Amino acid sequence: MPDKIPAVSVFKFLANAGSILKNPLPFHKENFELKGDTFKLKLGFGNDVVFSRDPEFAKYSLQKNQRNYSKSPIQTKDLAKYVGEGLLTAEGDHWKKQRKLIQPAFHKKQLAQLLDAMHEVIKEELLRVETHKPFDVFEVFNDLAFMTVVKALFKTDVDRDKINRLQYITEQAQKMLVKELRQPFKAWYFKYGGPIDKHLALTKEARVILKELVQERKDSGDKPGDLLDMLLDSQYEDGGFMEEEQLIDEILILFSAGHETTSNALTFTAELLAINPIWQDKIYEEYAFAKANSTTLNEFLRKCTVTKQVLEETMRMYPPAYFIDRVNIEDDEHNGMEIPAGSNLLFSVIEIHKHKDFWDRADQFDPTRFDDNAGMKHPAYFPFGAGPRMCIGNNFAMYEMILAVTELVAMFKITPKSTPIEILPLITLKPKNAMLEFIPR
Fold first, then answer.
1. Which tens digits make up the pLDDT trace of 410-426?
2. 294-302: which pairs have CB atoms within 8 A and are 24 or more residues apart?
3. pTM for the predicted model, two decimal places
4. Are strands 438-440 and 69-70 parallel, antiparallel or unpaired?
5. 119, exposed or middle or buried, with CB in 10 Å at 0-12, 13-18, 19+?
6. What is the CATH number of domain 1-82+322-382?
7. Quick one: what percent of the chain has pLDDT higher than 70?
């Protein structure tokens, strides 16, 4: 008879509700230590959530038996109402059709065409870094990441007011979704009191702006070779093109998913470099060598192995996508555990990445663990997910972050930081009070 998953009572959940609302991670960690690598949290009224930090269980659900596991309503319904049914939120045949269509646009050869434009906007945004006084660096990296996605989509100049409005709407929708998920007791007010309708109206405004930008491109006849060109030219197997509404869905997904996780990772990287200044020196030496011995940005990126390792170690310690959610379609079993159909599963990426059974000195910052790309092949490493639904933009994100970190270190020294790194676990793992000081080199 299969073993049942150990449970955490609804009474313990309710007793810790206040602290869970602020930061659920210590509560989860305590339960993992008490119950093992997989436990069931009882929420009351027959609702349960299964939490796991078992990398084998994660791979089983995301890869080996992925056909039996779909994304949860958090993405397919709650997020989708703001950004539509793009790659991040779609399921089933619709997702397969879109993934097959869009995948070629994110191949390394295609991305190479975007590197110069990405590089220019990164350097331009880093000029906003304040020097000789501490400030919260997240906003700089947040704007940098958003503008990099914009430049990748629209190589030609676009109205900055429209772009600023798109960024505002994107971020407001994300904040509203966080409120919905973290404050379910306000669901009635959110639905009937106006907040959701207000943000849906903002989303409609964003769609109008994007349709105008797309139409401007079509009317111009220009072919700058950016992501918008690739999306407009992509054809399904039957020879058809993406309909306008679907195209807008995919662009909104790129804005939403393509900038927040990257800005989080860059902020945590800067903080870790401030705490470990020796790695700043290593990146600076690598930057100087790579720049002097490269004729293209593609070649430069290949030489930035130390920078890549620093970023990989940052995402191990502070994974932006710190949970992966799934719901199984049919009854299942894994390593003796019964998983009834419709079980809500949450895989704790941050716990997997710091699991002492799989990582030596798990709480220490050590980029050398990623020498020779060993870490990316590690069985307990999921910075971009796993399986068929692994993040389509993983190469884009790594190129962007390597360019951003090398330019940052080339322009500035980050003053050593003595205060601890603070986190704010929302939809993604966000940094909090990332106060750093920069000195021009």
1. 999 999 998 999 999 98
2. 296/112, 296/115, 297/112, 297/115, 297/116, 297/119, 297/403, 298/112, 298/115, 301/115, 301/399, 301/402, 301/403
3. 0.93
4. unpaired
5. buried
6. 3.30.43.20
7. 98
